[in-house]
Known about the structure:
The chain has 365 residues and is α+β, with helices and mostly antiparallel strands. It has three domains: 8-99, Alpha-D-phosphohexomutase, C-terminal domain (TATA-Binding Protein); 110-226, Translation factors (Elongation Factor Tu (Ef-tu), domain 3, Beta Barrel); 235-361, Rossmann fold. The protein has helices at 19-30, 70-87, 206-213, 245-254, 299-305, 324-337, and strands at 8-15, 35-39, 42-46, 50-57, 60-67, 98-99, 110-122, 125-131, 144-149, 160-161, 167-168, 177-182, 185-187, 192-198, 219-226, 235-241, 260-267, 281-288, 316-323, 345-351. It has a seven-stranded antiparallel sheet. The longest helix is centred in the first third of the chain and has 18 residues, at 70-87. It starts with 7 loop residues before the first strand and ends in a 14-residue tail after the last strand. The mean pLDDT is 92.
Amino acid sequence: MADMPRNFEASAEIMLSCPQDIMQRLCAHFVEFGAVAIDGARSRIDTAFGTASMEACLGCLKVRAEGRDESSLAYVKLSIAEHLLTFASAENPSIVWQGDGAAGQPLPYFREMRVVRTENLTPHMKRLTLAGEDLGRFATGGLHVRLLLPRDGVAPAWPVTGADGRPAWPEAGQRPDVRIYTLRRVDVEKGEVDIDFVLHEGEGMPGARFGCNARAGDIVGITGPGGGSVAPADWYLLAGDETALPAIGRILEKLPEGAEAVVRIEVADDGEEQRLTSRAGLDIQWLHRNGVAPGKSTLLEDAVRNVRWPEDDRSVFAWVGCEHKSFRAIRSYLRQDRKLTRQQHLVVAYWRCGFEGDTARREDS
């Protein structure tokens, strides 16, 4: 008889003054991302990646993490650690996982990649094709990856698994810049992915700088994937600015024949439009800012509010990616006016005026 695949497991006992309170807060957070069950001092969180079982004891929270593979387990440990340390920040508790995925090992969801091709898609968008090994995990599980961008003149130095499950980064001078991007295409057999870069101007834009200057042979790291997925539906609303265009393009290519997609995309001008293809029926409108700075118009918000929704019993799903101010307005409209459930929409802030990197995603709950 063939060996049954085993689960990967790890556990931690975390000293806390109010473990029951922290457990409740963790469960309240993860209810949006999976199934949560609470039974007195015990609880269980089931997500797409794996499971976290918790028990609140006197002065201690016992956590057991399980995943179907090393990467899944690593994501469970990482998610629990990040949020627990946020909720218990005043105590700054120590988290040390025992079991699979020991500290110091390479991150199982990391790959080193090299640039093999570049292509200018529009005046302000450039496509890089990256090559690497063992990319099967990046074909499913989310649209996005974190790019780890070596700093100019510094040899690549990558993070490893930390004792608390979070990445342990190299010293500040060697630490790469990190930005989130969409996997526009994944070809597992060729060992390639495409990533499209919006070529922003200004300081504090390591991603745009890398995309602009990249040459064949340049090295970059990626971790992931993540960022949620699109639920099956009969009718879709897909909306965003140019930062969401790669995700919208990839989503459209995966929609089945017979589905309908209403697409609204804000770009600088008609020179930034791209050809989008899908087996689904398409209603596409390009929204041109025509000189208005990115993040300073209401074009996308207005277009979403003007979409005519199905009046029959077809299932619907809305996906939106944009600047933080528009994100908040559109998410509020979908939840409060359209009455969409959390299972019927995914709205994300891809960026935020005046902020860098992941700070765009603060206050997104």
